[in-house]
Amino acid sequence: MDFEPHRGELTAYCYRMAGSFHEAEDLVQETLLRAWKARDRYDPARASVRTWLYRIATNVCLTALEGRARRPLPSGLGAASDDPGAPLRPATDIPWLQPFPDARCDADTRAGLRLAWVAATQVLPARQRAVVVLRSVLEFSAAEVATQLETTVPAVNSALQRARAALAGAGGMDEIAEPDDAETQAVIDRYARAFEAADVEALVRLLTDDAILEMPPVPLWFRGSEDYGRFVHRVFEMRGAGWSVRGLAANGQPALAAYTPDRQLHTLQVFTVAGGRISHNVVFADPRVFKAFDLPPKIF
What we know:
The protein is of the alpha+beta class. Helices cover 43% and strands 16% of the residues.
């Protein structure tokens, strides 16, 4: 039995459950190991290999997540800051949500990977999270999910209803433009040029009025183009001009890797673009995130 063709979509599934790309890779490895050991007991008359693997992956995830704290973004922990000059102290005791590198899965498996949506699902109990991902994203039937979770169809339907009610304010899974959308790419290209030129005014013109900027593992976050601009101005004052950026994609969204004037990797920025303007930028500074995207620590 060849399980490798399923690795990418299983990794995306485990990421939606765990909120961490590195943990998702470990969970998938455990899933495939269990499947290999149980291959002689697989019955093709009862389920496809794919469905069978998802049942194993779900059990692996639920076991791993038992008693775990959710993985938030800063905007999920408290009110926005109104002080762009506040100290930037990382909160290393919080298991922050991590981005997912698009290059690690096929385009047709990226539904339900948006950062905001994954962050919203993190507030759900793990079994509800599994139900909403399996039913709403992966489109398994209620009967299949009931088998995977060893429960009943009414229980699955009830859990899905509760999960959808809890996520009602989180926005749709696919309401923002894809990274390869021409208009979206043009906005990101203009942002990249303005960032490399340290042109704060040009950056602010590309933002929505209520744009959000957050920077895990720093728990601060800002709402509004004015505070966004004031904070970025502070960064340029501290680091100087002459930045470089590289384009990539994360969570089905456009992203940029930013390098300081001395060519050191500084951050990975994941954007939400809506209506031709940037409404959200999640800026990651965790070296473990950089490794997941195979980003060079220095450019020359």
